[in-house]
Request: fold
Amino acid sequence: MSKYLLFLACLTGGVPAPTTTVILNAFSDFNCTSAWTTRDGALGLRAGSGSGTCTASFPGESGWYTIQIKVQAERDGAPPYSLSINGDKVDSGNYPYAWEDRLMCNESYFEYPDRNKIITAGRFYIDKGDSIAFYGQETYPCGHDHGAYAKWHEIILTP
Reply:
């Protein structure tokens, strides 16, 4: 059945909609390229690695989900990211800054530490077993001594 027909069936009551939120943990539910490591309590890119991708198979019921990415925002950079389903990019952009929505190169990490933020990617139809991929890229807008490493925690899929 096409996704359009399945959507119509859901609207008319022909197919039950999923009822359970699915949370995919960056550390335990994804297979990641070697560029990723533990950074400040999150999964982040190794310094100098450039970029990396993590993929997971969707374990939930097929249906429509709002997708959110829990990222660990930094004061000294807004790394690029993208989210794909079955190889099709569904969202991309840059992380928000951790503080005051601005780059803060000279402020102390101890005074302005990382902060967790939610990026809402949108609402998409996902089939059980679909491949979900998260891509991150490090950035060094404050110079080579400190950068932002696309740190993240989880992807939340809410029916």
Remarks:
- The radius of gyration is 17 Å.
